[in-house]
Amino acid sequence: MLFGRLRNGGFLLLEALLSITIGIVIICSALGVFAQCVRLFSLTLEQIEEKEQALSALYTVFHLARYGDNAVVSEGGKRLTVRLRNSTLSVYAFRSSLLLAHKGTANPIAEGCTGVAFSLLQHSLTARISFGNEVYTLQVLPGYFKR
After folding, report:
1. What angle do CA 75, 89, 109 make, to 5 degrees?
2. Burial bucket for residue 2 (CB in 10 Å: 0-12, 13-18, 19+)
3. Residue 58: in which H helix or E strand, if any?
4. Helix, strand or coil for residue 146?
5. CA nearest to 129, candidates 30, 62, 82
6. Is the dihedral of CA 114, 47, 105, 139 positive or negative?
7. Degrees, nearest 5: CA angle 73-76-79
8. SS3 44
9. 95 vs 141: CA distance, rounded Å
10. Which residue, 38, 75, 90, 143, shows the most beta carbons closer than 10 Å to its own?
11. Residue 72 contacts residue 60 (beta carbons within 8 Å)
């Protein structure tokens, strides 16, 4: 007889409550780890999407500078205008979007753009595009740039 109980294979109420408590602690810990993993995954996914948006914007600006001509920076460095074949295209930021305007219609190149600055110096184009706290810089050197 152990603690006043006969050995007939049953559990004491104290043993059952203790095992349930330990089980609940283990399950809550596992759920906490899972919730942290979901938050980390979401944060990482947002960062990846932001970097993809920035890469898309830089790629578009590079190709406009590379294949366009008669580039003009206006509005205090906030707008880049180039002629591509027979069309005039403009790139500028508006309401957290980087837009590409053509024939009076502006289409988004990238979402989440918080600022843009273009400059033309000695036949080279420099573009600084901000997404949140990150600033991405593209410099198109004279060998690749037609003016």
Report:
1. 90
2. exposed
3. helix 13-67
4. coil
5. 62
6. positive
7. 45
8. helix
9. 29
10. 90
11. no
Start-to-end CA span in the chain (Å)? 98
**What's the confidence (pLDDT) of residue 6?**
56
Q: Which of 90, 18, 11 is nearest to 98 (CA)?
A: 90
Would you state the structure tokens that stand for residue 106, as one six-digit string?
């502006």
The residue whose two tokens read 């960062």 is: 47
φ and ψ of 103, to 5 deg: 55, 45
Q: Which two tokens stand for residue 93?
A: 């930021």
Tokens of 73: 């920076």
What are the DSSP E strand ranges found in 1-146?
A: 69-74, 79-84, 87-94, 97-102, 105-111, 113-121, 124-131, 134-140
pLDDT number for residue 21? 95
What are phi and psi for residue 5, nearest 5 degrees?
Answer: -120, 140
Determine the Cα–Cα distance for residues 124 and 48; give it in Å rounded to an integer. 29
Q: What is the pTM of this model?
A: 0.70
Indicate the SS3 state at residue 53.
helix
Residues of the chain with pLDDT under 50: 1, 147
Cα separation, 39 vs 24, whole angstroms:
22
Q: Are 127 and 117 in contact (CB under 8 A)?
A: yes
